[in-house]
Amino acid sequence: MPKERSDVTQNAPDPRPTKTLLRALAGETLPVPPVWMMRQAGRYLPEYKATRAKAGDFLSLCYTPDLAAEVTLQPLRRYGFDAAILFADILLIGQALGAKLWFAEGEGPRMSTITDRSGVASLRPAQDVHEVLAPIYETLRILTRALPRETTLIGFAGAPWTVATYMTAGRGTRDQGPAHAFLQADREGFSLLIDRLTEATIEYLSAQIVAGADVVKIFDSWAGSLKGADFDDFALKPTATIIAALKARHPGIPVIAFPREAGERYVGFAAATGADCVALDNSVSADWAARHVQVDGCVQGNLAPSHLVTGGADLVSETKRIVKAFSGGPHIFNLGHGITPDADPENVHRMLGAIRG
Ligand code: CP3
Question: What structural domains does the chain harbor?
Fold first, then answer.
């Protein structure tokens, strides 16, 4: 901003953000990459299990701001990560739009199903999601007060396609069959669902930014099952629409996009969507991604979560190999997918030792 510029003197403080993750997102190549982990608040931590037991069930944990903030902070206390990610779930937006959502103990999410246009028509307008989601914004406000100033606060949402796969099937699926079936039976009708989710996600992420998120991440966990024009229409375009709207409303807000298992479609994804960073899953090699994806800007990733279960020399050598592969450009160290409940918490310390030296 010009006003700030005229104020700069020789003794002015370093204008670069103190938050290393924001510096990487702005395109800076740092000597040590900032690091956090997908699902860093989770069942591999005994303190998470204790707080979750106190909450009763997973959704109560998500909707109780004090407890959600507490589990968000637990991995930071243990490991000193460079970022905290809001504790919530990508499926809450479906519930806010009027779908039923519950978590079957030991199995995973369950939802009421939407398989045609009449189902889409029964959903609430996108502007009405805030009443259900208000506790999530409160969690963020608590976190802005609790976090050290060098720690970046990440808000998030699911990408429309991935959320739609759960809303059509009523649960997680291996091949996202019901969403593909709806799409093939009535492409226009399915697009109405994607459009409603796109608008709702703009509302939701925008409110997260107002509540204090420094960055937002869009999780498209099932992007890999879309090919060709379907990838363009249902993964790339909705993400681009969300990012354009967020940047218009909140100039300068950085966005991380995670089109998981996009493979060769990772190439050019940041430029095509306006994302500041592309998160990489562990099916792509870091060397390949450095040459084909990092050339366009910041990347995040991509250690296989299984290394935090198996540990040993491979954990250290793989971590170092990834750091080295991405050392020529902006990089945020992360896993290629979420840490699993059977991971050994000690292995996270070993990973951090290999990154930070
Ligand atoms: O620490 C963090 O990363 C923040 C919180 C977070 C959760 N889910 C908590 C959670 C985030 C960012 C998510 C995203 C999410 N949720 C995704 C996208 C990322 C991915 O993993 O691909 C998806 C697909 C979901 C939907 C979802 N939530 C599923 C399929 C499941 C069941 C699988 C499982 O791991 O049990 C969940 C439950 C869930 N979300 C848990 C956590 C910590 C485990 C619930 C528990 O405590 O019992």
Answer: 16-356 (3.20.20.210)
